[in-house]
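Hi Y.,

Following your request, here is the sequence exactly as I used it, all 64 residues.
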Amino acid sequence: MYRILPLTGQSGGLATMLLCIGLTLALSWLVYRLVERPMIRFGRSLSSIGDAPAGYSIALKRFR
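Below is the corresponding structure, written out as tokens. Let me know if you'd prefer a different format.
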């Protein structure tokens, strides 16, 4: 990003920095919504399986 909009120490540099922070936050939120939340739900569904082997459920409880 900084190759396209380099930080020069002028007021345009502040705009570049704010743009990068905004893009980073937006991308972070998107990844959380599209990747993290579904994987958390999937993990919870795995841990609630009643017919899993005994050692499997004990291992899962250790990571909570």
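The first helix runs from residue 11 to 47.

Thanks again,
Q.
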